[in-house]
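Long-time lurker. I teach an intro course on protein structure, and each term I like to show students one example going from raw sequence to a predicted 3D structure in token notation. This year I'd like something fresh instead of my usual example. Would anyone be willing to generate the tokens for the chain below so I can use it in lecture? Attribution to the forum is fine with me.
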Amino acid sequence: QEIEKYSSKASEATTKFHQAMEEVKIGQMKVVDYQKQIDETNGKLKIQQNLYEQVRSDRNLYSKNLIEAQDEINEMKRKFKNMTHQIEQLKEEIGQKEKALVNEYYTQKRMEKQQEQLNTRIINLQNDR
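-- Reply from a regular --
Happy to contribute to a lecture. Here you go:
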């Protein structure tokens, strides 16, 4: 009976041992699966970090380009304002010169008329003698 008792206990212990070994195998398989998931997740994280860095780099480049374009626009606006001012000044000068030219024209016509009158008078005075 004692042998049966020990045999039975040994059999139970062997069964428990095999069950424990099976549980250890299952646990190890779970650990391997979890490690694979962690590796996959880390891979995805690296990809996302690289994409983030690329987007950040692009954003910085576009931001720099935007600032340069805005500076260029402001410079062009300043030049446009100066040119508009110069155009107005030139228009004013042209207007003044046209006015002066018209005045000179009428002065010349008046003097030509006076000269003609004086010539006629001279001729009349010479004829009267």
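Some talking points for your students: The chain has a mean pLDDT of 96. Helices lie at 2-128.
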